Amino acid sequence: MSKLFVDSIEPKTTGGNLTINNTVLFPNKPAFRVLGPSSTQNGQNLTSGYLNITWWEHTTSQAFINNASNFNTSVGNYTAPVTGIYHYDISVSVNNVASGYYSIWMQINGAHTNTQPYSITDPTNGSAKDTITNSGLLSLTAGDTVKWTHKADPDTSVDFEANRSAWSMYLVG
After folding, report:
1. Count of structural domains, the chain
2. How many Å apart are CA 149 and CA 52, to the nearest integer?
3. pLDDT band for position 140 (cuts 50, 70, 90)
4. Average pLDDT, the chain
5. 110 is in which domain, residue-wise?
6. Residue 172: CA atoms inside 13 Å, Cβ hemisphere, count?
7. Is the pLDDT confidence value at 41 over 80?
8. DSSP code for 43
9. CB distance 66 to 32 below 8 Å
10. What is the Cα–Cα distance from 43 to 159, expressed in whole angstroms?
């Protein structure tokens, strides 16, 4: 039987810590969590088809996690630092979808496809509040960018509820 002796093992991600001395630590595993707007966003204009969701809050230390610094706070997207399987979870709380539907769609590398995650809500009346949720696993290649877009049709305006939306992703393996 062979034995492997090493002084240290380094993680594939920048800035990560992995210690093997009866304990395994990997605190900087790629992960992020952001919240939706901290105040209700009334009458958000959605007249131009699918628009990027950019109102993610990243100022509250309890809400904002950005291990490995791969969430871009300016444009609201995540760049996978390593190739692997990632878990994602999103919820968006909307109000005042008067007619038709409101939908969110994931974009990977700037493109929508029918195989990428999406969710649609169709409230029965304009005062109904609804929360769209979606979660799953993605196979990403290092450098892939992920973002969410949204659309209301035939409505052109919806309200986003304060403190009721969130998006997170992390590397599973």
Report:
1. 1
2. 4
3. very high
4. 77
5. 31-171
6. 11
7. no
8. E
9. yes
10. 5
Amino acid code (one letter) for 18: L
The residues facing 120 across adjacent strands are 103
- 41, two tokens: 């966003």
Residue 151 class from Cβ within 10 Å (0-12 exposed, 13-18 middle, 19+ buried)?
buried
Radius of gyration of the chain from its Cα atoms, rounded to whole angstroms: 19
Identify the CATH number of the domain in which residue 132 sits.
Answer: 2.60.120.40
* Alpha-carbon gap, residue 98 to 30, rounded angstroms: 39
Q: Output the pLDDT for position 144.
A: 96
Report which residue type is found at 32: F
Query: Residue ranges of the alpha helices (H) in 113-164?
Result: none
Domain annotation covers residue 13: no
User: In this structure, which amino acid lies at residue 112?
Assistant: H
In a domain, 4, yes or no: no
- Integer Cα distance of 171 and 153 in angstroms: 34
Least reliable range by pLDDT among 14-18, 57-61, 72-76, 143-147: 14-18
